[in-house]
Structures are given as structure tokens and as C-alpha cells.
């Protein structure tokens, strides 16, 4: 289908939020599957399998669906509305991005397979990147062509990323990077990584760190998948042995990696909090009906609790998008979201009873996947405890915890 054929008519001339929202909603009604319908792919990024080869095949298939959807959004002029035109956007006001995101969350679609590329790297490049770096990446990111991962955590540095020890040593034309990263989501399917490494060993902690846009396809990068309890090989160990990053790939200042990282983490929390895989209220209501539990008062109470929490999350997202800044809002959203994902999956498994144990059961399988995926959501992107610390210190102004 040509771009013009699917573009909401006159989209660039719609100045008021309500006219814009109506056009966007009409477009989604026509082009996006409904939540809970057989075509719903809002949890497509929750990929599981019993073998690495099968996982890679399913991951590729899920990535293809995500890319196609992102391309469709782009062709419709709905991707990156607020980005400058030179980077592929429409140069529109930021509220239009929020309207598209809000409307999209009402349908059975997801771009979470590409969350690092679409939701975390662009803000980092807009704040800290050079014009050339934006030109290099953003036009490919916006239409779903380029994938990214984050090379942050290490065996000795997770919550405390100031302890990162991967070393970037200056060489002709750039840096040679050696060290080990771990828990890297999507490393096997990413074109680039946002890497944090120590560029000055004489400065301990945050000061000696720098961030880079590192190409993943090179001899010094060895990706080894790790198996999760869900059966997924979602994340990986990544061994860096004299991997090369050129000078032009330094993001921000040399030694200024902490500031870049903070921008990335803030957007990561908000992106996870706005996720789709844990938003299962519509599907849970359908499950209760299918299992004929919808007249049982206890089931109704549980399901109503899930529906209410999801509504709360949606309202928080809407407030964060359009109101004044919510202090530590990303951490609040991420905390609520990870709790919601856990409680929704628990409720489904209670409804399913023993049939939840048999993974061959087509109704139970997606809920089993959600159930096993949920604990990871409480850790990835900063653990629940770290979010609580952030909310206490930055949101509520409570005394800071002692820093060593
Ligand atoms: C699904 C998933 C995907 C991930 N994807 C990526 C990725 O793509 N890239 C990447 O770099 N990393 C990724 N991670 C890693 C993740 O960011 C880290 O696991 C996380 O930051 C915690 O670090 P850690 O595992 O080293 O635990 P630790 O930091 O060692 O924490 C251990 C425990 O101590 C608690 N704790 C630590 N410090 C404090 C404190 N100050 N106050 C209170 N409690 C504290 C923690 O809450 C936790 O319960 C992913 C993890 C998961 C589960």
C-alpha cells in the first residue's frame, strides 16, 4: 500500500488536539487490530521457546511484525510527529506524539520489541548527540529499520552503574573496548548498542564514564544468549574483546557518560511503565467470560481490581503526557506497571487453575508466558527497590540514602 493511501487525510493541517485525536483514532480503527482480538499482538515481545534456534526464529518473526507496524505508522505520518523534518519527523508539537501514543495503547499493537531504538535512543540523541549522529540513526529508527540494545549492566554493576569496569582505551581514530556486559536484552538482534564504559581509570565512580553508539556486528563483540525461567533467551552476556568505536560515536562529553545515562534511564522507566505486555485487563475480562467465572463474586472482585489498576496506569500516563512534570513520574509508572503485570498474570492463573500447568493448552500458554515474564519486569530498567528510592528522594523529597 502506498504511503499516501494510508495517511490520515490532512493530518499535517490539524491544529487542535481534538481534531487531531479524531483523525488518529479513525486511522487506528481502520488499521490496528482490536485488543483481545485474534490479531492482537500487544504482547508479541514476550517470546519463549525450548531451544535457542526456535527462540531466534520466533524473535525474528516478532521483530518483523513490529517493524512492519512501525513502517505503517511512519507511512501514515504518525511516527515521531514532533521530530524535526530533517530526521524523519513532521516538526509538529510534542502533544501530537502523546496523542498518538495514548490512542495506540487502546489497540492490540505494540512496538516494544524496538523500545530501546524508538523510545530511549532518540531522547538521548536529541539531548546529547551531534547533528551527524542524529542524521546517521534517527531516519532509520523512525521507520523501524534500525534496532538498538543497551550495554549497561555488568556482573559487578547493575543498580550501581557507577561501578562499571568495561574499559575504553584510546586508539587511532577512536577507542578499543574490552570488558563484559550481562542481561543485555535483544543483543542478538540489534544493529547498535548504547554502551557505557570507563574512559578514565584514574577517576573512580561516575566521573570516568563515557557513552558510545557502538555497532554490534564486529569481530570484538561476542553475544552469548542466557536462558530465563520462562524459556526465553531474551537477554545475553556480551563479551567485548578489543571492540572498536570511532571518535564520531562518542555521545556527549568524554567523561560525561553519567549525564547521558541519566537521560536514558529516565526514558527507559517511562517506556517500561507505558508498556503493553502487562496491560492485560481486556484479555482477563475475556478469559473470565470464557471460563464462565464472570458471575462468581470473588472472580468479579479480582478482575475489577485489575481493570481499576490498569485505568489508574492509563490516567497516570495521560497526566505525565499532558500535565506539568510529575516528580519521579517514570519511576512511579514503572513500579505500578510491574506490580500490575504480576497481579494480572496471578489473577489469570488462579482462574485457569490446573490447566495453567499444561503449556499445550492454547488458552493457558500466553498467560503462562506473562506469569513467567512478570518477575523480570520488577528488575529490568531498575529494580522495584531502586524505583522506591528514586520516588522517595526525587518525588517526595525524603532524605537521601547514604552514598558510599
Ligand atoms: C528482563 C530484564 C531485562 C534487562 N535488560 C537489560 C539490558 O537490556 N541492558 C542492561 O544493561 N541490563 C539489563 N538488565 C539488567 C538490569 O538492569 C539489572 O538486573 C538491574 O539494574 C539490577 O542489577 P543487578 O541484577 O546487578 O542487581 P543488584 O544491583 O546487585 O541488586 C540486587 C538486589 O539488591 C537491591 N538493591 C541494590 N541496590 C539497592 C539500594 N541502593 N537500595 C535498596 N535495594 C538495593 C536490588 O533491588 C536487588 O533486589 C535486564 C534485567 C532484566 C531482569
Word description of this protein:
It is a single chain. The protein is α+β, with helices and mostly antiparallel strands and 404 residues long. The protein folds into three domains: 14-147, Acyl-CoA dehydrogenase/oxidase, N-terminal domain (Butyryl-Coa Dehydrogenase, subunit A, domain 1); 149-255, Butyryl-CoA Dehydrogenase, subunit A, domain 2 (Beta Barrel); 278-395, Butyryl-CoA Dehydrogenase, subunit A, domain 3, CATH 1.20.140. The protein contains twelve helices and eight strands. It has helices spanning 3-6, 17-31, 52-75, 94-104, 115-128, 131-142, 257-273, 281-290, 297-322, 329-352, 364-377, 384-395, and strands at residues 148-151, 167-171, 174-185, 192-198, 209-215, 221-225, 235-246, 250-251. The strands form two sheets. Strands 1-4-5-8 form a four-stranded mixed beta sheet. The relative contact order is 0.10.
Quick summary:
By secondary structure, this protein is α+β, with helices and mostly antiparallel strands. It has helices spanning 3-6, 17-31, 52-75, 94-104, 115-128, 131-142, 257-273, 281-290, 297-322, 329-352, 364-377, 384-395, and strands at residues 148-151, 167-171, 174-185, 192-198, 209-215, 221-225, 235-246, 250-251.
Q: For the CA atoms, what is the radius of gyration?
A: 21 Å
Integer average pLDDT: 91
In N-to-C order, the SSE pattern is HHHHHHEEEEEEEEHHHHHH
The helix tally amounts to: 12
Strand content: 5-15%
Q: In what order do the strands lie side by side in the largest sheet?
A: 1-4-5-8
Question: Which term fits the overall shape?
Answer: globular
Uncertain ranges:
1-5
What's the helical proportion of residues?
40-55%
CATH topology of the largest domain: Butyryl-Coa Dehydrogenase, subunit A, domain 1
Which ligands, by name, code or SMILES, are bound? flavin-adenine dinucleotide
If classified by CATH, what would the architecture of the largest domain be?
Orthogonal Bundle
CATH 4th-level superfamily of the largest domain? Acyl-CoA dehydrogenase/oxidase, N-terminal domain
